[in-house]
Amino acid sequence: MGEKDISQAVIARLPRYFRYLGELKDEGVERISSQELSTLMQVTASQIRQDFNNFGGFGQQGYGYNVEYLYQEIGKILGLDKEHQLIVVGAGNLGTALCNYANFKRRGFYFAGVFDQNPDLIGKKVGNLFVKPMEEMEDFVKNNTIDIAVLCIPKTSAVNVADKLVKCGVKAFWNFAHCDLNVPKGIVVENVHLSDSLIKLSYNLNENR
């Protein structure tokens, strides 16, 4: 793919393409045109072609896209042809729900450990794991190949926990804490602010009234 910079807007659409193509594949659809995909996804055919051209195009004019091939190629671009080991920090309702979501495993995301500082949660079974105390987190990460840390903790402790995990070698954070992490260059952070999403929904609802 070279050194071409891909806009975040294009990257943000890739998981949606991947999801729709997966559904088409499961339905036995072998080939689809950009226009057919446009109708299905409510994205213009021109936008679809522009997005795919960032990565080489994938299709042939007048022939469309091979669904299985396109699904696999987008999966590779998204890094889904590799397995990723995760830990969850915070075994409350959100952390528990994420650990119990079976679809992550289908995509190659495996939860290796879950940690909390609440004594009442230590030893509790979450998914296939037992909650470990925070004191064991750093040694666990050092002794295991952990790619991603999922932060489901208050913002007051998130920054400190992230700093410790960076020093242990964690390279990516899925951050549900209501704060921005100040991490070194090369560390990847995906912030998920649930209240922001709900407020955005509220705005659009208000605009449509």
Outline the structure in words.
The chain is α/β, with parallel strands linked by helices. The chain has two domains: 70 residues, Arc Repressor Mutant, subunit A (Orthogonal Bundle); 113 residues, NAD(P)-binding Rossmann-like Domain (Rossmann fold, 3-Layer(aba) Sandwich), CATH 3.40.50. The chain is built from nine helices and ten strands. The strands form three sheets. A six-stranded parallel beta sheet has the order 7-4-3-8-9-10. The protein has a two-stranded antiparallel sheet with strand order 1-2. Strands 5-6 form a two-stranded antiparallel ribbon. α2 packs across α3. The N and C termini lie far apart (45 Å). The mean pLDDT is 92.
CATH architecture designation of the largest domain: 3-Layer(aba) Sandwich
Strand content: 15-25%
**Can you tell me the overall shape?**
elongated
Largest sheet: 6 strands, parallel
- What do we call the CATH homologous superfamily of the largest domain? NAD(P)-binding Rossmann-like Domain
Number of contiguous helices: 9
Q: What is the C-alpha radius of gyration, as a whole number of Å?
A: 20 Å
CATH level 1 class label of the largest domain: Alpha Beta
Q: Span between N and C termini?
A: 45 Å
Low-pLDDT stretches are: none
Q: How much helix is in the residues?
A: 40-55%
Average pLDDT rating = 92
